Amino acid sequence: MPKSSGVGSSGLFTRSPANPLLTPTRWPYPINAVMNAGATTVGAETVLLCRVEDRRGISHLTVARSRDGVSNWVVDATPLLAPDPEWPEEAWGVEDPRLTRVDELDAWVIAYTSFSDGGPGVSLATTQDFQTVQRLGRARAPEDKNAVLLPHRIDGHWVMFHRPVTVVGHRADVWLSRSADLQTWSAPEPVMGARPGGWWDAARIGMGPPPLETPEGWLVVYHGVRQTVSGALYRVGLALLDLDEPTTVLRRSSEWVLGPAEPYELTGDVPGVVFPCGLVHDPATDELRLYYGAADTCIGMATASLPEVLAYLRTCTED
Ligand code: BMA
After folding, report:
1. Per-domain residue ranges of the chain
2. How far apart are CA 133 and CA 115, in angstroms?
3. Checking CA distances to 140, which of 9, 17, 89, 231 falls within 20 to 30 Å?
4. Measuring from atom 4 of ligand 1, which residue has the nearest CA?
5. What would the pLDDT profile of 88-146 be if each residue is shown by its tens digit?
6. Where does ligand 1 bind, in terms of residues with CB under 6 Å?
7. pLDDT one-digit tens code per residue, 229-263
8. Domain 16-314 -> CATH class
9. Closest residue (by CA) to atom 9 of ligand 1?
């Protein structure tokens, strides 16, 4: 048995009894699906930036707000970010946003997938109020997605994790690139790879929400994919990266900590998917709230205790 199996990897996260928190039927305008939301807090409110798939199959990003991060969601009547003809790389949609609060910019950076006939690539935008956005443009050319920015510079450079698909070998691993200005990015450096063979995260992996800074390292929540005869299974794993050198993996869960099990995770447009893009840490209670897309159809949330998550990771090895 793997070393980490005895310490409750399966009990670390608890689904909200209110799941699914957001569904297509409670949207203020007709849509096909709502999923994969970035998350943050603005004052006393939790803000989700939701990926909304319209009834053409094209995605845009719309804000939903709640006082407790669980109930009474108020959904904006119009998108915050929708494909714009001035940005042809978004022609087939904008997807899977991740939100990073960046105090140096007095703004949130939105890292999202911009999709067009060139394939999916990484784009960045900023917002100061979740009412207007300023696009920074394409940061990584196709095929690349699952980008997240760290909240502050390391050694003078912004650090962005992302998931290019390599031309040779067709691998889909997590890499990072650095930038002095959020415009020009360095050549990618490898961080964490899909595991081989029969592992739950063998087909491909990608960052979930932006890593959370903890005294023990950057806490990473990532998705891992297993290819099966009936399609892909998307599950969630954990890792810790070195605070000063985030290409260094200190710990990585051998087991997944959340996988599709509930009806709303097993039934939908893409069955068998939990896909986290948002993480909120409450410093008062040390509770983590993980927001995830379920079956590419609705949004779920699961809670965990940060001290318990870190205690679990201490029992894991680096690979
Ligand atoms: C990934 C992304 C996600 C999606 C997932 C499961 O490649 O495109 O947006 O939730 O597949 O379909």
Report:
1. 16-314
2. 18
3. 231
4. 296
5. 999 999 999 999 999 999 999 999 999 999 999 999 999 999 999 999 999 999 999 99
6. 36, 95-96, 234, 270, 273, 275, 293, 296
7. 999 999 999 999 999 999 999 999 999 999 999 99
8. mainly beta
9. 96
